[in-house]
């Protein structure tokens, strides 16, 4: 697993070696190894049940009840964006953003983060008063206000409608360009992976089945020929054949 | 614009869909009459007063017409007269103060103990093993059945009365707070973990606000139980308080004083429930429920 983007230097931010995780007799991750470089955006694809979430939860230290072995190195400064925005309903928007942030300038930083995600002026709203997309933007602000070296995102846009999702892609790309965290984005959407990531991994049977660097300049166009090639390549790895539909 | 090109692409890919949209009839047809509405309709202004006022009217008419024997139930105006006399003599205030002070003490101790027990039992397996069983056993014994034992232990003074009330109050506070706390979504616990919250902060930011709806529900039961227990302890053995006033009036057949006492109890119950609901609505303003 040493053949990713050659241009990046320094020690990787995430280092996973021979990671095994199992639930009872079922082995979910079977000797998985993975490095993520500083500032690298990695998307993780895989069929449901392939262990995507298990890997993400292992990296997020959320799997203390799961048995397993292997070596895992992650930075201290990491944050997680879940599929649901997971805002505390009894805290106002700004309080949710700075939750657990023990800094004197926390409120100010929270306001700046909300401005970055385009939610200035909604500081005092309750989470129930926001739309699904707005809630997810608050969750992004909550992650970024902590200046993470690693951002873990578990299908963060899965519950959003297609238009909102496109807007969130643009926003996430801008935010990542500015803050430069390493990102691991778990998704089942091949186009989303190819649009956003520097590198796309396909997880199959608990190990990495494909590791593809995306060499298309950003912003990326779904209609681009190279985009189409990578998409078909990834779909093949996911076990989906993409034959052109011929008229009978 | 990305959004625009996306819409265009969708329309191009599904030409049938955009055609179909034109076939949908405009939604301006008048509503058919006779459709059954499932909602209750508009609220009646001051609707809550209609029932009680109606009762009062029947009571007054019965008294004027001589259908109700004043020894069974004196007329409303003679009850009011008795109340004015009692206030003028300073008796009603004195008894009311004593009763309120007892109920308040019992409530404060009951709420504190109930909440603390709920937190210990809700937040630790060992705590639950130790606390939950005894509380459930206590819950199965009616508080009022404990009065003889409490009289032997604490005598017949204020201690026994406050203890009885506190014991009645702590049960609903414990049950509701504990159940609400345990049903806090585990996703929030996960979130707290990823945000690296300390234990104290986790309790303050997640557990306590999350258990608040249950606490308030328990509190509304608790206030009712407090007055209920108060009535009984004051009638069992007391030398002051509304319950004592009623018990004394029973000895002399003073129905009017009994009615005054009952009206005072009713007002206390309603007023305290109103106060709890006021704070409940203010503290839980983040919720959007069926009631909103």
Automatic annotation (TrEMBL), chain A:
Keywords (A to Z) from UniProt: ATP-binding, Cell membrane, Membrane, Nucleotide-binding, Translocase, Transport
Keyword ATP-binding: yes
Gene3D superfamilies: P-loop containing nucleotide triphosphate hydrolases
InterPro entries from the UniProt entry: AAA+_ATPase (IPR003593), ABC_transporter-like_ATP-bd (IPR003439), ABC_transporter-like_CS (IPR017871), ABC_transporter_ATP-bind (IPR050166), P-loop_NTPase (IPR027417)
Ranges of residues in domain ABC transporter: 14-230
A GO molecular-function annotation: ATP binding
Family classification: Belongs to the ABC transporter superfamily.
Protein's name according to its UniProt entry: Alkanesulfonate transporter subunit ATP-binding component of ABC superfamily
Organism: Mesorhizobium delmotii
From TrEMBL, chain B:
Domain annotation ABC transmembrane type-1: ranges: 96-276
Alphabetical keyword list: Cell membrane, Membrane, Transmembrane, Transmembrane helix, Transport
PROSITE patterns hit by this protein: ABC_TM1
Subcellular localization, as worded in the UniProt entry: Cell membrane
Transmembrane segments: 46-68, 106-127, 139-156, 162-181, 202-228, 257-279
Membrane topology: Multi-pass membrane protein
Keyword presence, Transport: yes
First-listed, main subcellular location of the protein, grouped into a coarse class: membrane
InterPro entries: MetI-like, MetI-like_sf
PANTHER family: ALIPHATIC SULFONATES TRANSPORT PERMEASE PROTEIN SSUC-RELATED, ALKANE SULFONATE ABC TRANSPORTER-RELATED, MEMBRANE SUBUNIT
Family designation: Belongs to the binding-protein-dependent transport system permease family.
Protein name (database record): Aliphatic sulfonate ABC transporter membrane subunit
